[in-house]
Hints:
About 30% of the residues lie in helices and about 35% in strands. It has helices at about 20-30, 30-40, 45-60, 110-120, 140-145, and strands at about 5-10, 10-15, 65-70, 75-85, 90-100, 130-135, 150-160, 160-170, 185. The strands form 2 sheets. A 6-stranded antiparallel β-sheet has the order 5-4-3-2-1-9, with helices on both faces. A 3-stranded antiparallel β-sheet has the order 6-8-7. β3 (about 65-70) and β4 (about 75-85) form a beta hairpin. The longest helix is centred in the N-terminal third of the chain and has 18 residues, at about 45-60.
Amino acid sequence: MKRLVRLETSRLILRPMEESDFDFLYETMNGPSVRSVWEHEFERKDIEEWIERRKAGYRENGYDYMLALHRETGEPVGQAGLLKERLMDKQVLGIGYIMSERHMGKGYATECARGLVAAAFEDLGQKEIYCDIRPGNLPSIAVAKKLGMEAVGSFKKLYHGMEMLHIIYRLKKEGFLSPCDIRVKWL
């Protein structure tokens, strides 16, 4: 199994999360935009479990959410990753992206997602990739549309005892223009 250990775009480096990323992840997940989408405040134990789930994803699948760092400064700007998901009664490969409040609106989510989609299509041989987004999460919907994704359905996800409507977006490989400025390292 291939393990994604690093992905570089023109401005960003994505690498696996570590316990030392806790403070940044805690701040990001508790930012007003993220909290409004997830509809709850993240406690310390939630972030510890978040990091552990990412590590389990790396072990089981070779990929998961990764920390996104600015190439020049090394400052964390968010997280993004490839995710195994069950959507529309089938196992699919999805992408997810969550930027910190102070780094939203700079194109980092689109840059991360574009690089991850390219890696999924070119390195993993995927024919399509998915993303599920809450209807009110307009910035994430904008990223999906910039990638060329189209809405193909919806479902209600049970999360923290709440049923949350999600729109399913899909991108087929033939509809994607691969960026030329990414470098991917797999082990």
